TrEMBL record:
<keyword id="KW-0964">Secreted</keyword>
<dbReference type="InterPro" id="IPR008160">
    <property type="entry name" value="Collagen"/>
</dbReference>
<dbReference type="InterPro" id="IPR050392">
    <property type="entry name" value="Collagen/C1q_domain"/>
</dbReference>
<feature type="compositionally biased region" description="Low complexity">
    <location>
        <begin position="37"/>
        <end position="58"/>
    </location>
</feature>
<keyword id="KW-0272">Extracellular matrix</keyword>
<dbReference type="Pfam" id="PF01391">
    <property type="entry name" value="Collagen"/>
</dbReference>
<dbReference type="Pfam" id="PF00386">
    <property type="entry name" value="C1q"/>
</dbReference>
<keyword id="KW-0732">Signal</keyword>
<dbReference type="InterPro" id="IPR008983">
    <property type="entry name" value="Tumour_necrosis_fac-like_dom"/>
</dbReference>
<feature type="region of interest" description="Disordered">
    <location>
        <begin position="37"/>
        <end position="130"/>
    </location>
</feature>
<dbReference type="InterPro" id="IPR001073">
    <property type="entry name" value="C1q_dom"/>
</dbReference>
<dbReference type="GO" id="GO:0005581">
    <property type="term" value="C:collagen trimer"/>
</dbReference>
<feature type="domain" description="C1q">
    <location>
        <begin position="140"/>
        <end position="276"/>
    </location>
</feature>
<keyword id="KW-0176">Collagen</keyword>
<feature type="compositionally biased region" description="Basic and acidic residues">
    <location>
        <begin position="60"/>
        <end position="78"/>
    </location>
</feature>
<protein>
    <submittedName>
        <fullName>Complement C1q tumor necrosis factor-related protein 7</fullName>
    </submittedName>
</protein>
<feature type="signal peptide">
    <location>
        <begin position="1"/>
        <end position="16"/>
    </location>
</feature>
Amino acid sequence: MWALIGAICLSHCVSGQLFDPKLKGAPRLVCSVPGSPGLSGKPGPNGPPGAVGNVGIPGRDGRDGRKGEKGEKGDTGVKGRVGPTGKIGERGERGPTGKLGPAGDIGDVGLPGPPGRNGSKGDKGQRGPRGAAGVCKCGSLLPKSAFSVGITSSYPTEKTPIKFNKVLFNEGGHYNPQTGKFICAYPGVYYFSYDITLANKHLAISLVQNGQYRIKTFDANTGNHDVASGSTVMYLNPEDEVWMEIFYHDQNGLFADPGWADSLFSGFLLYADTNYFDTLAEDYA
């Protein structure tokens, strides 16, 4: 171990002396071990100040310092100008009801309000005093209904109401010449009759009430003109319909000539229903 250390020191000394430029003349080989470093010398005098260098690049901003302690409250400043009016905010919640203020003066009477709903029916009142006797106008309450009509054309269509279009009399207007039907307006007992001239054919004719045959007559033609007639009494209700009708095909000898022959259909109210008449009198009063 010690031999290895000695060999290393020797090689270091030889190489240091061979390449040291300060050594002049023949190379010298001195073998020594470096001693311990000496003490530092005294510092020399300060040299003259150097020239001022170029301004360097500004450094980065330092970090913000810590927040200082709150200072004392300052004096009140001068009152500033009033700023512009801001937008109206949202409506707040309704506050509590305040105390009732003093009563104001009576205002002008307002316009009447809309009518209210009908109230409930009140109790029946006491019977009033008897009134003065009225004047009877019973004649104006008498129902009137009568007609008599003729036809101006021969041989009408079978199985349908015969349209007697020649109106001789029509009290109340209850017969309709456009349809050939009599329509009852007042309930009661009615009388109906017909006198029909026939020629060239036989005649099968009937009086019809609401689609039902009430009387049916048949007259055979013998080559001359003839007259078929019939009549009946019946009770009618309001809106009942009565008409004449040929009830059999090829038995249609109804004949009419405005110059010398007529075929007629007539009817009238004998008397009205008494209950209906009493109700009419009460309504009129």
